Amino acid sequence: MTATRGLEGVVATTSAVSSIIDDTLTYRGYNIDDLADYATFEEVVYLLWHGKLPNKEELSIFSRLLAENAKLPHEVLNHFKTYPIKDVHPMAALRTAVSLIGLYDPEADLMDEEANYRKAVRLQAKLPTIVTAFSRIRKGMDPIEPNENYSVAANFLYMLTGNEPTDIEVEAFNKALVLHADHELNASTFTARVCVATLSDIYSGITAAIGALKGPLHGGANEAVMKMLSDIETVENAEPYIRSKLANKEKIMGFGHRVYQQGDPRAKHLREMSEKLTKQAGDSTLYEMSVKIEEIVTSEKRLPPNVDFYSASVYHSLGIDHDLFTPIFAVSRVSGWVAHILEQYSNNRLIRPRADYIGEGKQAYIPIEQRD
Ligand SMILES: CC(=O)SCCNC(=O)CCNC(=O)[C@H](O)C(C)(C)COP(=O)(O)OP(=O)(O)OC[C@H]1O[C@@H](n2cnc3c(N)ncnc32)[C@H](O)[C@@H]1OP(=O)(O)O
Ligand SMILES: O=C([O-])CC(=O)C(=O)O
């Protein structure tokens, strides 16, 4: 048995949810470029879960279902005030809150298809409320209840600030949600599938996936990109900063990808949005800095930007706190996790690969009194 490091190139399952073929990303056969330009996030969630785009009536019923399930139990809101340490990372709070809402769901351990769908709706609906409520409560503000008449994108921005978002803000945020919704067998989705393949419940699967998304080699990279941009400060500083990192063999966050060879098709949409939003805010430094970094990393390392690179300046331009960037990824990606979890349940087999053992050979047991 020989191990493939990081399971590179290993095909671990079949899936009909999304595909990456020749650097083109599709959700259920629909090109991401079309979805990014034309679809609402609600349409995309419906597409991922049902395998087809909704008609007007289906979309209206589905959107209402999400809106009606967005509120959180008081106990979940209150638990944010009980954290033992200051500065709990919002991804840790989200991971904990998702596990906690499972305790308040009487159907948590029901495994039939209808119950799993109802739980999927509750999770999708509640994640934006969790992230925005935690963000406000940690600043000593009251959470804002979801507005049932708003889209998911508008509601998130509204619950975060209490202000009605502008059309441009909603359009940008909706596009970001659409672009992050699913991505074949990425690390967090694989985690979710491994978890539920034991026939564990959907709350466990999503909690596990949030844990995997948190790391900086995966979803956590968007916050790390923002930290890098903040450290660099000016367009002039970008080149020496990046060259010094590369000389030290350090990774540049937001670049590289296990699957894409020529580039991540989502990045161009986020780059466009970054340009538009930073210009509109009257200061395009972050965008210009990002373009400079892209030029250097692409020419020096032949590594194109991934989805996390330009999303950082997009979210910053929307006035969002930097440590909420990865939770926002989760607000979108929960739709993909759910689609994969439901697919896993529908044709389940335990996921249990082997390890190529490289440890010690046979050892004689030595009683503790005789050990050095
Ligand atoms: C939503 C997402 O998850 S998108 C990915 C988000 N993550 C990041 O942006 C973090 C930065 N990028 C990376 O760490 C990697 O490119 C990953 C994790 C995305 C993919 O990793 P892998 O396919 O395992 O590639 P791996 O880490 O083995 O790198 C291969 C080579 O490219 C180099 N490399 C890869 N990414 C980068 C980078 N961002 N900056 C500099 N060098 C890099 C590695 O140093 C390594 O070089 P070596 O062969 O000389 O040692
Ligand atoms: O597919 C991956 O490895 C990571 C990624 O881009 C994503 O999850 O969106």
From TrEMBL:
Keywords from the named record: Acyltransferase, Transferase, Tricarboxylic acid cycle
Biological processes per GO annotation: carbohydrate metabolic process; tricarboxylic acid cycle
Ranges in a coiled coil: none
Cellular component GO terms, alphabetically?
A: cytosol
What InterPro entries is this protein classified in? Answer: 2-MeCitrate/Citrate_synth_II, Citrate_synth-like_lrg_a-sub, Citrate_synth-like_sm_a-sub, Citrate_synthase, Citrate_synthase_AS, Citrate_synthase_bac-typ, Citrate_synthase_sf
**Record CDD domains:** BSuCS-II_like
Question: What molecular functions are annotated in GO for this chain?
Answer: citrate synthase activity
Provide the reaction this enzyme catalyses: oxaloacetate + acetyl-CoA + H2O = citrate + CoA + H(+)
Q: In which pathway does it act?
A: Carbohydrate metabolism; tricarboxylic acid cycle; isocitrate from oxaloacetate: step 1/2
Record: active site? 257, 308
* Family named by the database record: Belongs to the citrate synthase family.
PANTHER family assigned to the protein according to its UniProt record, in alphabetical order? CITRATE SYNTHASE (PTHR11739), CITRATE SYNTHASE, PEROXISOMAL (PTHR11739:SF4)
What's the protein called, per UniProt? Citrate synthase
Lineage, broadest ranks:
Bacteria, Bacillati, Bacillota, Bacilli, Bacillales
